[in-house]
Design a protein that fits this description.
alpha+beta, six-stranded mixed sheet
């Protein structure tokens, strides 16, 4: 009996045995070409690159300013239960005439007298020249203010939206409206009649006294920015008596403490000892950790409730879009707020895209400028930089920022401290902590930073920028 020997050689595509070494087997002897670890979270972080950074040696940065009288132009907050909207009594102190008033019983009485109104788009709220007989708080929606120009034409005086109000000053002093207000969208307002306000004032001596003090407090000499005036004389002839003056300062200036972002990086000693070719494991772990810390740092500079730019923009420097999407007119309005040597716009990439669409509709094509080897869009010669740290709400609205930067320009500055122990990058340290009983090495990674707006007109914000408006 004859035995047949079968070959273990695999067949090729033609049904014949394999004639050479396969690529799968050959890979076992080859060295792969590797990239460093990639990370999708990394962005351009333009804000960190563009802000001038001021050394904060003591960990605290004090912004001394010329004395400014409080104007009380904040926003009102409401509570909602189903379809019913009520003003929070304490929020009424955001009104200029009630700034500093602390009688909660009276504030609750005032809040209880507000009447809710639902308006349709196009419905008029007050007419120009009409008697001021109510305080109007805007709980939700958009309201356009229109005044009469010098030649009888209509002039756009801006847009009011959630938290804004009008009629507050003349409600206590009397007078007529110098503008008309009309709802541009479905709008919810709360109104307090002058009759109800006067009735509560008659029953409350503390409110009457506070209103009287408010009326007379406007006697302070001040400039257009609310700063205590510096008395000067000009254009005089002869031996005129010159005024005496001095520059008064704020007695309790704002102080910014450096904030911190930290984490503990852990690397096993076996990994650090054995697996360092062709790349150092510790270096790559540190690189990605620091990238994440820098991303968090930029996010905090924009959104932190204490020192973030969105929270620290003065209310007088906040404007609303005229129609919803960001138009060339809106960016011009923002430039009118930060007109002293503006440095750059900062906007979400989707907001920049929405602005581009609005420009295309109008046949306007913004120019690009080169910044550090990058081509970036610009408006009126001011570059527009993207940042995904500016939040987008659930209703697809966002904000756009415009700022002047630099301490010598009284602008926006970043704060950090260099020369700290175990410094790895400016303002960032990597400190060895310990090796535990499981042979895990720990490093404390810390970044110290903050930001300051030196004067209010260095930062402007365009709010309620709609991203999803069609056609």
């Amino acid at each position: 009996m004859t035995e047949t020997t079968h070959s273990a050689t695999p067949e090729n595509g033609n049904g014949q045995g394999q004639l050479s070494l396969s690529t799968d087997a050959a890979k076992q002897l080859a060295t792969t070409t590797k990239t460093p670890p990639q990370m999708q979270e990394i962005t351009t972080r333009w804000l960190l690159k563009l802000l001038p950074w001021v050394q904060c040696s003591g960990g605290v940065f004090r912004v001394n300013r010329r004395l400014t009288y409080t104007l009380g132009d904040g926003r009102i907050t409401f509570s909602t239960t189903g379809s019913e909207v009520r003003v929070i009594p304490a929020e009424l102190t955001e009104l200029p005439m009630l700034r500093g008033f602390d009688d909660m019983e009276v504030l609750e009485a005032l809040a209880g007298r507000f009447t809710q109104r639902e308006l349709e788009a196009g419905e008029e709220i007050v007419a120009e020249g009409g008697e001021v007989n109510q305080l109007v708080l805007i709980a939700h929606g958009r309201v356009g203010k229109v005044g009469q120009g010098a030649y009888g034409d209509d002039q756009n005086l801006g847009v009011l939206a959630d938290g804004d109000y009008f009629g507050e000053q003349t409600l206590a002093q009397g007078g007529t409206h110098d503008f008309s207000a009309r709802a541009r969208t479905a709008t919810t307002v709360l109104t307090l009649s002058k009759q109800d306000f006067d009735r509560i004032a008659e029953q409350s001596p503390t409110l009457r006294e506070h209103i009287e003090n408010w009326r007379t407090s406007g006697d302070h000499e001040q400039n257009d920015y609310g700063e205590a005036a510096i008395n000067l004389s000009s254009g005089h002839v002869g031996e005129a008596v010159l005024p005496g003056t001095f520059v008064d300062y704020e007695q309790s200036p704002r102080e910014y403490e450096l904030s911190v972002a930290q984490t503990v990086l852990r690397v096993h000693s076996r990994v650090s000892d054995l697996y360092n070719q062709p790349m150092s494991q510790l270096d790559q772990q540190l690189r990605l950790t620091i990238e994440a810390l820098r991303e968090r740092q930029e996010d905090e500079l924009v959104n932190n409730k204490d020192f973030g730019l969105l929270s620290n923009a003065d209310f007088g420097q906040r404007i609303r879009t005229r129609s919803g999407p960001p138009t060339p007119d809106d960016l011009d309005d923002l430039l009118a707020k930060v007109w002293k040597d503006p440095s750059f716009f900062l906007a979400h990439p989707q907001a920049i895209a929405a602005f581009g669409r609005e420009c295309s509709k109008r046949g306007v094509y913004p120019q690009s400028i080169e910044v550090g080897g990058h081509q970036v869009p610009a408006w009126r010669g001011v570059p527009i930089f993207p940042s995904n740290k500016i939040p987008v709400s659930g209703t697809r609205t966002t904000s756009m920022l415009l700022m002047r930067t630099g301490q010598e320009n009284q602008g926006v500055v970043g704060l950090h401290q260099t020369g700290i122990p175990d410094e790895y990058q400016p303002g960032l340290s990597v400190r060895f902590m310990n090796i535990n009983e499981k042979a895990v090495i720990s490093y404390l990674v810390s970044a110290y930073y903050s930001a300051a707006v030196l004067v209010p007109d260095a930062l402007g914000v365009l709010e309620d920028v709609e991203l999803g408006r069609n056609g």
